[in-house]
Design goal:
Number of strands: 0
Radius of gyration: 25 Å
Helix content: over 70%
Structural class: mainly alpha
Number of helices: 31
Largest sheet: none
């Protein structure tokens, strides 16, 4: 491949994670450990401004990212170019740290942005674009480049998309020192620095101390003896672990390495096993108490309190897992797979005797969150509690050596997140300063012609496409500015609009053609990624119609009087049960295509604003299913030819 072709190829390629060893490991540890300690100190007693914190966080993370992600997909080592870029980012970062005092009190138009500031801003912008390419891929990189070009040259356009034009120096100044409008150190990076880092650290050390095994055993006790027990263990354990990790891809890697082989051993196809794990892990970003970092970013954007958000989404996130659980049950019963021998399932006594101590850090985390303290402080208390309780778990103590290893693993693992949220900051500055966000919002609303359903469909499409290959925080940062105002104009409350976008930002993890969680699961299952993502889309189909349900039935978000909340929760829950059964096509026997279609229609009507029609449809659906259960003679199963076996504990 000649130089020109390779350059073009690299521009649209990602790098690989480089193994940490030798001198490179020591370099990363020298940055990762002080950064982790600083984050803990800041949560407890720090008094830096948000801009200063973002700079102190980004500088070491950029260096770590260049040392941990290679420049090309065919490279698995760090080259001299990577070391050079790491050095450049460190030198430029030191300059930014020295200028933090100036930047914190910056007044645009009065303070002078000098030559040194411009040079460092240009360097950091280019470093960000390179990290985007390496860590996230061409999807968001191309969008960021287009927004930059539009910001600089859009003044030459006429008509609706024209703007007054921006010069390069103003653009660079805005990127670095006006975080309220967007930029490299704006809300996405600040949320990653203040919240995401600490919660990811909490989840990592909980896993290292054996907490992951405890959650898995709890899931096995709860679901292991039921029809399709192995798949239900995957759903339950992924939900339990996901609610603290908040990262679908890392959740798949953590729980999927156990659950996917287990499901394959008891009869599930590799494709279905990987799909179930991907969908279940993806839901962790919607499940309180953490919901991933995106919930904290929503607090920043909307001003709605953290407790109000998690209280509102609780029922909806539980219904997400109810839908998956019912589909897994029907599939397992239909194909007669997933049975686990009772001797292979731990008892409640064994589970809590060996793991009860992990309830302490989880309980402390939830207590501090609910007491009104900052989420960062809650994560810190939980982290300290995890380290302390690990000393009482045989062979799982967090020693100084394990602490250093954990810090290195965390900082190298979140490199893609840091690149993505920094890129999102560039998008925000371009969207806000040029007015492109309000123009796109107006365009979406005008195309919808004040039709709420059409506006929701357009918002769904835009959010899923924007989220391809991007972390939830990054895609939400984009659509919260670009799409949310249009949904509010169309009649949604601020809470409904932003939760709607978060749901479909999360959905992009399992939606073809770029379904990150499904791709990670496919690598464990040794199955084709696209086949897994297509199956995952089916398994998660009902779960991802829920945003439409809470738009038309706000009671499931705890909005409205008590009788409305109770009515909406019951109606939507029954709709989820009916639709999940119909999608899988089995309920004590095969459901023919006409019955499945009718049941899906009944479920969709139950999700709608037409309450009377929804109740009538549900009554008809329930009557039909009861007849199938008690009035038909026997049931038909598709018996799997896969070998049946237990699983190793």
């Amino acid at each position: 491949m000649n130089l020109f072709k390779r350059t073009i190829w690299l521009a649209f390629s990602m790098g690989n994670k480089v193994p940490m060893e030798g001198g490179r490991y020591a370099l990363v540890a020298l940055l990762a450990v002080p950064l982790t300690v600083f984050e803990i100190w800041y949560a407890v007693a720090g008094n830096f401004g948000r801009l200063e914190l973002a700079i102190l966080f980004v500088v070491p993370m950029y260096v770590i990212s260049f040392l941990s992600i290679s420049h090309a997909p065919d490279s698995y080592r760090t080259t001299w170019v990577d070391y050079l870029l790491a050095l450049v980012s460190l030198v430029a970062g030191v300059y930014l740290i020295l200028q933090m005092g100036r930047y914190q009190d910056w007044i645009a138009g009065l303070d002078v942005y000098n030559t040194g500031d411009l040079v460092v801003a240009g360097i950091y912008s280019l470093l960000t674009l390179e990290l985007l390419r390496r860590c996230v891929g061409p999807g968001i990189s191309v969008v960021v480049w287009l927004v930059i070009l539009y910001s600089l040259f859009g003044g030459h356009l006429s008509g609706f998309f024209g703007h007054r034009g921006l010069d390069l120096s103003y653009m660079l100044e805005s990127l670095m020192v006006t975080p309220h409008d967007g930029g490299l150190f704006s809300a996405p990076i600040q949320v990653a620095a203040v919240y995401a880092f600490l919660f990811i650290t909490f989840g990592k050390f909980l896993e290292k101390s054996g907490g992951g095994d405890f959650f898995f055993n709890v899931a096995a006790v709860l679901a292991g003896r039921r029809t399709g027990g192995s798949a239900k263990i995957a759903v339950t354990s992924s939900g339990l672990f996901g609610m603290i990790s908040g990262s679908p891809a890392s959740d798949v890697m953590t729980t999927g390495s156990i659950t996917i082989p287990m499901m394959k051993r008891v009869g599930y196809s590799p494709r279905y096993a990987a799909a179930v794990e991907a969908v279940a892990s993806t839901g962790g970003s919607l499940l309180p108490p953490v919901m991933g970092a995106v919930v904290f970013l929503m607090v920043e954007f909307t001003g709605i309190s953290y407790t109000s958000i998690i209280g509102s989404i609780l029922v909806c996130s539980i219904l997400y897992y109810v839908g998956i659980y019912v589909q897994v049950h029907c599939y397992s019963a239909r194909h007669n797979v997933g049975h686990i021998d009772a001797v292979d399932i731990p008892t409640w006594l064994h589970t809590f005797r060996t793991g009860w101590i992990f309830i302490v850090p989880m309980g402390l985390l939830v207590y501090v969150l609910m007491s009104g303290r900052t989420p960062a402080l809650a994560a810190t208390f939980g982290l300290v509690a995890v380290i302390v309780v690990s000393w009482f778990v045989g062979g799982k103590a967090i020693t100084p050596r394990k602490f250093v290893q954990g810090c290195v693993e965390i900082c190298t693992a979140i490199a893609p997140l840091i690149a993505a949220v920094a890129g999102a900051g560039i998008l925000l500055i371009g969207l806000n300063v040029t007015g492109l966000a309000s123009k796109l919002s107006a365009l979406i609303f005008s195309v919808a012609e004040a039709n709420l359903l059409l506006a929701l469909l357009l918002a769904t499409i835009v959010t899923i496409i924007s989220g391809m290959g991007m972390p939830v925080v990054a895609v939400y940062s984009l659509v919260a500015v670009m799409v949310a105002p249009a949904l509010v104009d169309a009649g949604l409350t601020l809470l409904q609009a932003h939760l709607f976008l978060i749901f479909y930002g999360v959905a992009s993890y399992i939606t073809p053609p770029v379904a990150v969680a499904a791709y990670v699961a496919s690598s464990i299952a040794d199955e084709r990624p696209m086949a897994v993502s297509m199956t995952a889309a089916k398994v998660g189909l009902v779960a991802f119609t829920l945003p439409y349900a809470f738009v038309y039935n706000p009671g499931i978000l705890m909005i409205g009087p008590l009788e409305t909340i109770v009515f909406d929760v019951i109606k939507v829950t029954l709709g989820v049960l009916v639709m999940s059964t119909a999608v899988e096509g089995w309920y004590h026997g095969e459901l023919n295509r006409y019955a499945r279609t009718a049941l899906i229609v009944c479920g969709l009507v139950a999700f709608s604003v037409w309450d009377v029609a929804g109740v009538i449809g549900l009554l008809l659906a329930i009557f039909y299913l009861l007849f199938k259960r008690f009035g038909s003679n026997g049931s038909t199963r598709i018996v799997s030819t896969k070998p049946q076996a237990g699983f190793d504990k």
